[in-house]
Amino acid sequence: MRPSTLEEREAFYRCEFDVDEVNRWIGERRLSMKFAMILGRHTNIVLPRHKGLKNDIVIIDDWRGAKDIREFVLDYLPEGLYYDRNRYRDVRECARCGGKRKHCEGCYNYDGQQLAFDLDPENVDCPWHGHIGDKFQRGQGLSFCMFEFKAVRKQALLLSDEMKGRYDRVGVVYSGRGFHVVVDDEEAYSLTKRARRDMARALARRYAIDEWVTEGGSRLMRLPYSLNGLVSRKCWIIKQRKDLVEFDPRISETVVPRFLQSA
After folding, report:
1. Is the pTM of this model over 0.85?
2. Helical ranges in 117-145 per DSSP H
3. Counts for the chain of helices (H) and strands (E), in that order
């Protein structure tokens, strides 16, 4: 698992990015969603003409379908493509705003936020690699081993089961590194920031989640079917419980891009 080159990113989005699946995933949310790209913040791999935007978040809020999103991506070739978990009454109003409002929650156009839990393998205490603080001190904050991956895989299973005891529309997404557990019930969209914070703190005692994601401090999640350029793996929706139990990103043909399969 390694970073993707610019040429590999282009090949993936031209030939392998599934526009039809992305459109199905978007469904009826076309006017309520926006997307974002991070070009090279973690890999330092970025097109020369966009070097000045390497660490920035580039917003996509003027689009009609997944083909438009792909055209933006082919122009920028980002290391990561994301969707905004906020729901908007009309995303076209966001384009007119241009980010003038510091906090979307106070805007008339804001219509709630998807509840999500981000399980990253580096958050797991490892008997060989230590605590996440130790990893950052060694410059290995984003690296992980299979012990850590298997731990978050099991946690994703348990957390999704726990959420299914509370909600009806619960999904699990492989992010290219760890897992996202997402909830799309209307009740979850209307949770207050305090309720999200309390939930995050309670669950963080048992799961390796990034609390600030659940709280809403970070509202970007990797777009399903996109390429995680940090590790050259596809972001993938895991629909069946049995598929999660033994999921291995090193060998799964569903998440290994073609440019690695042919290497």
Report:
1. yes
2. 132-137
3. 11, 12
Q: Which residues of 90-104 are buried (b: 16+ CB within 10 A; e: fewer)?
A: ebeebeeeeeeeeeb
Q: What is the pLDDT of residue 92?
A: 82
In eight-state DSSP terms, residue 130 is B
* Low-confidence stretches of the chain (pLDDT beneath 70): 98-102, 126-144, 263
CA–CA distance, 70 with 77 (Å, rounded to integer) = 10
Q: Whose CA is closest to 34, among 115, 119, 117, 109?
A: 109
The percent helix, strand, coil of the chain (3-state, each to 5) is 40, 20, 40
What integer pLDDT is reported at residue 72 of this predicted model? 97
pLDDT reported for residue 106: 75
The HSE-up count of residue 70 (CA atoms within 13 Å, CB side) is: 18
**Strand pairing class (86-88; 110-113):** antiparallel
The pairs formed by 152-155 with CB atoms below 8 angstroms and a separation of 24 or more are: 152/119, 152/120, 152/121, 152/123, 152/124, 152/178, 152/179, 152/208, 153/179, 153/244, 153/247, 155/119, 155/179, 155/207, 155/208
Check residue 125 and give its pLDDT.
76
**H/E stretch holding 161:** helix 146-164
Q: What 3-state class would DSSP assign to 38?
A: strand
Q: What is the pLDDT of residues 192-250, one digit of tens each?
A: 999 999 999 999 999 999 999 999 988 999 999 999 999 999 999 999 889 999 898 88
Question: Distance between CA atoms of 50 and 40, rounded to whole angstroms?
Answer: 10
